[in-house]
Every structure is written in structure tokens, then in C-alpha cells.
Amino acid sequence: GLGGESAKLVWDSVSGHFLAASFAFSTAFSVELVLRAGVGGVSFLKNAWSWLDLISVVAAWIDLGMIPSPSGNMPNLSTARVLRLIRFVKVLRVVRAAHIFAELRLLIKTYIASM
To answer: Distances in Å between the alpha carbon of 4 and those of 42, 48, 75, 92?
Structure first.
């Protein structure tokens, strides 16, 4: 029907923007990972969250097709889903940190208001 064709046109016009955003976020996370590894040194490798972040960044680049998958072809759907789940866990960590900082900000504001 007509609805399907218009949805395809909309998706075709927007898909490039999603690809650009994925590339930008993957680049930013890669830079952050390299900086943390440089600053942390050996202790970076001892932290489980660092390994999760590393797997997440590599998965993002594999998903974008910038790194060939270990099998030489595109990852199957179940592998891609697991890699996306790992990236989702990383996003949850960021949301959790933002929540903690919001509570800290409220605590500081309360302390200043009480003076």
C-alpha cells in the first residue's frame, strides 16, 4: 500500500543520519576509551567495566562494518543482538551516573541554601 512506500521513503531519507550518529558516537566512545586506557595504564585492564566498554566499542565498529567480524562475514543476528545488549548496558551505566550526579547536585544546592 501507499503507507508502506511512504514509510520506506522516510526511512531512506533518515537512515544516513542514523549512520552518521552511530559513527560519531562510536568515534567519541573510542577516543574516551583510548584516553582512559592511557591514563589508567595497567589498572585499566584490571577493571571489568573497562573490558565491557572495550567489547562495546569493538562491537559498535563491527556493527558499522569498519572492522571485519572474526568469522570473515557479517555477524549473525544472535551475535548482533548480544553486542547491542552490551552497548545497552553501557548506556544504562551513563544513565545511572547522571542520576547519581543529579542527587549530588541536589545535595549541594540544599547545603548552600541552608547557609
So the answer is: 53, 45, 28, 33
